[in-house]
Write a structure and sequence with these properties.
It is elongated, with a radius of gyration of 20 Å. It has a single domain (12-115), classed as Helix Hairpins, CATH 1.10.287.70. The chain has 3 helices and no strands. With 116 residues, it is mainly α. The longest helix is centred in the last third of the chain and has 44 residues, at 72-115. The chain has helices spanning 12-44, 49-60, 72-115.
Length: 116
């Protein structure tokens, strides 16, 4: 997927396309995680769809729950959702920053090779 160390740096227009692809995948992952949280809170805690979406977004961003979690199933779901949403958050960061870091390291390596 990425160019080898001996290949030239990817042209800028192709790099932008790679970044857009990474951002699109990240957005899809975030939307999927919010949908899972919304469905879960709606089913387990009987929140409205809007309150369920708000609760899942707030947990995903690390703010915490908006309303009280009253049921045991709701507490278990909240714990599992918190762990998974944190995992998705760090995955999204990796997906977005990998092309940037690869390009930076590739350019730095090419600069070192040219000086020698």
């Amino acid at each position: 997927m990425y160019e080898h160390i001996k290949q030239p740096v990817l042209p800028l227009h192709k790099f932008y396309r790679r970044m857009l692809r990474s951002i699109a995948v990240s957005i899809l992952l975030l939307i999927a995680m919010i949908a899972i949280g919304t469905i879960g809170f709606h089913a387990v805690e009987k929140y409205s769809v809007l309150d369920s979406a708000l609760n899942s977004i707030m947990i995903m961003t690390g703010v915490g729950t908006v309303g009280a979690i009253n049921t045991t199933a709701g507490k278990v779901f909240t714990g599992i959702y918190s762990i998974l949403s944190t995992l998705v958050f760090f995955t999204v960061l990796a997906i977005i920053f990998t092309p940037l870091l690869h390009r930076l390291l590739h350019k730095l390596h090419l600069d070192v090779d040219r000086k020698e």
